[in-house]
Write a structure and sequence with these properties.
Layout (H helix, E strand, L loop, with lengths): L1 E6 L20 H17 L2 E6 L15 E3 L4 E3 L11 H8 L5 E3 L11 E4 L2 E6 L5 H11 L5 E6 L6 H4 E5 L2 E4 L14 E3 L11 E3 L2 E5 L3 H9 L5 E3 L2 H4 L10 E4 L1
Parallel strand pairs: 1-2, 4-5, 7-8, 10-11, 13-14
Antiparallel strand pairs: 1-15, 3-4, 6-7, 9-10, 12-13
The structure holds glycine.
């Protein structure tokens, strides 16, 4: 069974953390509708959607990806780089305890799940404004016994590594080369986003199926020309909060 953990949109989402975007009004009700459609898409892709207890007082809590790194053998509860987001992790740990043994990143380490891209037994981890060297070193030490390699990648100009690069097939990356040189990934095969769509690199691979935001038609066309068949959702309101399609779920096999 494939689980997708999600968390409701906070009515306070307009007060979210922002790093690279200008603040603009966010319609929380519309964001919640888009989130519900996103959950329906996850079900269409074969996931059982389970919602973690809501945290209406935590503006960014819908972006559950940042709170944990879930692997087959273990889940690592993160220590998010934004202090306002640290209270998000406790309820996610409670929800994950049923499925995985837990480990945790401790102070002074910081790590956001949005900075962690797993490709097989390698985890590419963004050294970003949210994830520090201590957090990456802790993740490396925690995962070494399970046979994972942790490689740091410098991220500048993007919030998270997965703002700039995600997997669109088990052996194929989608990359925004303006934010991250594709060569950072050991010569892995890659497609580039259309240069007019810098935020398009954030796509969610669920098994062999792909979920993308519908805001990036040129990049979607590139994916289709490559033989991929992405399902699309409107995530425009959540995008104003600097979140993409990977940010709103933690997907794993139960
Ligand atoms: N608003 C998403 C984040 O900054 O974490």
């Amino acid at each position: 069974m494939r689980i997708a953990l999600t968390r409701a949109v906070s009515p306070e989402i307009a007060r979210c953390e922002l790093t690279h975007l200008e603040r603009q009004p966010i319609d929380a009700a519309r964001a919640a509708e888009q989130h519900a459609a996103y959950e329906r898409a996850l079900r269409e892709l074969g996931c059982e959607v389970r919602r973690v207890a809501p945290a209406p007082e935590l503006p960014d809590s819908v972006f559950i990806e940042d709170t944990a790194v879930v692997l087959d053998e273990v889940a690592v509860i993160t220590r998010p780089g934004a202090a306002s987001r640290r209270p998000e992790t406790a309820a996610v740990a409670d929800a994950l305890r049923e499925f995985r043994p837990l480990r945790a990143i401790d102070a002074p380490g910081t790590l956001d799940g949005g900075d962690v891209l797993r490709v097989g037994r390698t985890l590419w981890v963004g050294a970003s404004s949210r994830t520090n060297a201590d957090g990456i070193a802790q993740l490396r030490a925690l995962l070494r016994p399970f046979g994972y390699r942790v490689e740091a990648v410098a991220v500048e100009g993007a919030l998270h590594l997965k703002s700039a690069a995600t997997l669109v097939a088990p052996d194929l990356l989608l990359v925004n080369p303006a934010w991250l040189p594709p060569a950072a990934f050991d010569g892995m095969a890659h497609l580039e986003v259309d240069p007019t769509e810098p935020f398009a690199a954030n796509a969610l691979l669920v098994g062999t199926r792909l979920l993308c935001a519908d805001a990036f038609p040129r990049t979607l066309e590139r994916l289709r020309r490559h033989g991929l068949d992405p399902l699309t959702v409107d995530a425009s309101e959540l995008a104003k909060a600097e979140g993409g399609v990977t940010c709103c779920s933690l997907v794993f096999e139960a």
